Amino acid sequence: MKLSSLLRTLTHGGAAVAFAVLLPRAASLAAQWVLALAAGPAELAALANYTSRGMVVVALVSAGLSPTLSRRARAMATRAGRALAGGAIALIALAAFSVTLAYELWAGLGVVAGVITAFFSACSLFAAASKSVLPIWQLQGRFLQTLAVVLVFSPVASMAAAMAGSPAAVAVALGLAGATPALLLVRPTRLWRAARYAVRVVRHAAPYSVANFSTVVVYPLSLSASQSILGDHRTGQQVLYWSFVAALSQASQAFAARAVAGTVGPGGEADWHARAVRAWLPSAVALSAIAVILYVLFAVPIPWLPFAGAARDAMTPTMLVSGMGPLITDAMCVYFCGPRSRRALPVGSVVSSACLAGMLLLAPGPLIRHFGMFGPSVLVGVVRLAFLIDAPVRRYALGALALLVAGFALALALGRGVVV
Asked: Distance between CA 61 and CA 67 in Å, rounded?
């Protein structure tokens, strides 16, 4: 392949966008690993506090922001349209910053920690829009410039902050890296028009985000409970494991998106959903095998492999199943959700999240000791499979639900929780 053809492949099309979207997440994994080695797992728990608490308010609109903006391709193709979208996103991000800061100050987090959490919240809002903005920069010939700015923040700045042992600086660098593509949209525009556009975007994005929001709310509660029950060190080890699990989930969703794109065609939605699920299944099996290997590396000492089994005191048998859960449930609930399921899924997500949140507030001990700090979020995702009610995806969802529930039951029967 000629060099010019290689560069064209790397800077155009879906592969380049996928690389730019996954780059901050990959750099985040590396930064978390370096931070754990440089400052200890306790600082990793502090980083997770900034990022998880900062994403709660944003989750109200983040999941639906990118598809909502993607439907406005004609407006985004003009300079005025991009400036209007940038102004709208900036106003929504400002609202997220203000609400998050007010809540964190009220909760007693502290001024500095509250500002960092609120800043990450605003950056997360911009990052949610970046997937739909990157193709625009490709068409405008500004993809490489955008990617260069992303690289400055992460991995360069984030790795430097991690080696310095500063979780706050890592959170700021990672937030800016993810936000950069959408931040470049911001240009002078009329405030009133931007405000009206922001209201329209939120109104269309919110329904997509309800199910995701209910899951995100559970995570900070379980993280806080885990820190008080298991301690910062073990919680930090579980956070590191969860970071890899989240990356596997992102990869699974990428395969699901490719499967959907490759199978949409003749027939109704049910027909191409069935073809897409069958096309996605081999990748889900392969990623599940990687999840098993990941659990072994964290929980089982291997004499010839440094750091293998270093987190065994923080790992439970249920975490083996939890490592596979998100890569199955997230992909199925996002990409293979039919029209009836789209109405039922938010209700199921809210109800299951409310039940898990109540358990975490009233009696968190057994749940945290046996499922870990990320187990409650995984359980919400597993329950969501029961609300995929459209045929023929329903039988795949019920099969996955049965396998995951059986896996959790077997893990609870054979293993024990974390010893406090």
From this structure: 11
